[in-house]
Amino acid sequence: MKAIEKFDMLHVTDRVLVAVSGGKDSLAVWDLLTELGYQADGLYVGLGIGEYSDTSGAHARRFADEHGLKLIEVSLRDEYGYDVPTAAAATNRVPCSACGISKRHLFDKAAIDGGYNVLVTGHNLDDEAAVLLGNTLRWDIEYLARQLPVLPARDGFPKKVKPLVRLTEREMAAWCIVRGIDYLVDECPIAAGNKHLAYKAVLNSVEHESPGSKAAFYLNFLENMSPLLAGMSVAGKDSLHSCATCGAPTTGENCAFCSIVGKAAALDPVPVECVLGKSVGKSLSKRARR
Ligand code: Q46
Ligand code: ZN
Question: Ligand 1: which of 123, 184, 190, 195 to mutate, judged by most atoms within 8 Å of the beta carbon?
């Protein structure tokens, strides 16, 4: 694959952990990497988003079984006492915020604890272009400087790579169909409030009027803009220390994940239906608090 070579993402001796959701992108990248001869295990995080999570887990397990691959599983509810709907209510923020913090923490932890030296995610060109549009609309230099297909290992974080950044959502769906991969088609039921969906819609409409714009927007950013932003991220310069609760690298006393655990594990489980409207989260957090 061109991206793996161009961005020097992986070596055959790497121990690779692929974050797998059961959707087309993560299963396709796992499939691609094993086809290319990489040693890649999977990691599935059970987010507790009702039936959606039950089904996504089943797709990930089936793929692993059928291909004789190792799948590591972590359950937010079983191991940390909360799930994403409850975390959304506890923090009174959109579900994707608590979900993203939880996933990033558990991906890093699983990679470090398991001795993997590279963590792979299935972000594709559409995903990265949407994130880039959001970062550009805010001229968020910090995020723009770190929006790279490869982030090297540092201070207790594993190396992170995104091999699909040159490939579109459609291409990944086509790959799955050609390879007979049975992936989860349903969208997450609590994605409301996720601005990336709106950015994707905008980019799709621009692409419709001017084919090739999406790829040019993202790939030319990497080619022309990223080198100018190199070194402008303060993330690598901030002094990190160990979270007082879990030991993960953080800038505060406790990491963002432990802060969510502290708030959400104290609540009774909040059903998925109750976080579909943002305002409901507020009333629920009071009702559900013990
Ligand atoms: S699973 Fe989680 Fe996504 Fe659902 S809550 Fe948002 S981030 S949309 S990839
Ligand atoms: Zn912590």
Answer: 190
